[in-house]
Amino acid sequence: MLHNIFNIISRFKNLPPQSRALSRYKNLPKVYAFDKICFYPFNQEIVLFCGYFAKPLESILDDVRKNIIPGIIHWQSPNFFGYFQANASTTGFLREMLYTGLNVAGFNWISSPTTTELEIVVIDCQNHFYFREMVEVLYMVALVTCEAIVCTLAATRDTALKDISEDKITKLVVYRSNQTHSVLQKAAKLVGFSPSNFRPIVTSSSADFALSPNDVRMAMEQDLANGLFPLFLCVTIGTTTAGVVDSLIGLGLVARDYGVWLHVDAAYAGSACICPEIRQYLDGVELCDSISINPHKYGVANLRNHLRKNVELVKHFEGLLATDCSFEVVPRKFALVGFRLKSNPSIFNDDVSKLNRELLEVVNASGCAFMTHAVVGGTYMLHGVRLVRL
Questions:
Q1: How many CB atoms lie within 10 A of CB 278?
Q2: 140-297 to CATH, choices 3.40.605.10, 3.40.640.10, 3.40.50.10140, 3.40.50.720
């Protein structure tokens, strides 16, 4: 049975050449069938099966092959270039087996002493990798960045309401740029912030779409004049649209002036800051009140090599695009490059955004590769993202 499960997994992973499953690798299925993703008629037998008796595992695996695999996007395919994939490593796979086998519920020290101690050691290591000087931090381990932001917003809200009274919650204001991930707005709604008190501050191409400290200051001044309370400012290290980096120093000083909580969303590019050549993007982090990073614990040397390989691959891709006059390339940030087809009235008259949407649809419909897009400053562009296998 374990062998059958491995065969299902290995069929969609970027396996090394020495793998016994090389024959399967040579015949990888398409990344996905576009029409099935949009209109996949999930098998009614699966939906309706909530039987009283357990179903044999062999039968469940058969359902997976027939009804699940045809309708999923294969994130582990070597032809997957969309979103921000995190290809599973062999080490990670074995770690999950060990973790599941031990099945420890380490919710406090007494329930599992060594896991709690290990957590503290790992956080201290992250502290050393990311910051120039060791600082004393309070931390929480969250499954996803959204969970971390929800907790940070809730803690900030409760602290503020103790000072201005509970009935003033409708007066609290949250600030972000129009490039900030939508998860912040969702989190703000979850913890009770009024949508009318959510300030998406417009950025411009002249500043590489980074958040302007002066614009933030003006927005806060306006809200104060209207009897509102500036509470929370979220800045980003590496947006998911174009890899935009906000200035921690400039925005940190604004936050200090107005007593606003400054949170840094470094979910995408924060982990890359363990590389000395990228570390400067965290300059000014000492002015911030909280930061969320998706850390990875593979050993700093190997992880740095892995991150640099990602950047080099995308640099190569960027260079290939630059040699083709049909494409316009957005300058690379980290391991992310945006590009789009240029307008050519002699060949087509449709608007450029429509043309690039059609290009993306053609690529994805082929099933030979999967890509995603972003809209930055009103410009529709395709994303080129490549992560190598650890």
A1: 21
A2: 3.40.640.10
